[in-house]
Input
Amino acid sequence: MTKFIFDLDGTVTKEETLPLIAEHFSVQEEIEKLTKQTVMGNIPFVESFIRRVFILGKLPVDEIDELLVGVALHTDVVAFIKKNSAHCVIATGNLSCWVAKLVAEIGCEVYCSEGMIENNRVIKLTDILKKENIVERYRAEGCRVVFIGDGNNDVEAMRAADVAIASGLTHTPTASVISVADYLVQDEMELCSRLKQLLRPAAL
Output
């Protein structure tokens, strides 16, 4: 069986969610700087994520969850996921409490980072998702794994996958992603066509 594992931000969504949260609550300057440096690989993801959660964790969880329901999505990618939900997984470093309603709309299995919530605020991180662990889990189950991502924190998962696709749908993938990718796609039509080709052998 083929499993498609999608990064969320910038791959399924048309924008990065953490800067969107930051803009809504007027704390965007520091978050935008951290996000940009992280995507480019200049700051390790774990360090950056801890710093961003420290800032955004002071904000109400339920408001963030509701805000992200309205985030713009790549509709063709979401349509592919919904049609082939048994084959599709989302793996995101984002916190489950922040993206619960968003990923429910997409309709496939999802793996997230986790945080401890107290008084509707995230008071600390309890687990930071390592996307490569999800890849290795499905490979151990005998699946052929295709990983689709664009940021530096996707590299190890892409390296561990059977097929790695660098997604340029929202912004240019990092050099590290391109260096390990088997394919580079620039638009939804191209990506969905490639995904259908990779799914087809499993269906024969």
Summary: The two ends are 11 Å apart (CA to CA).
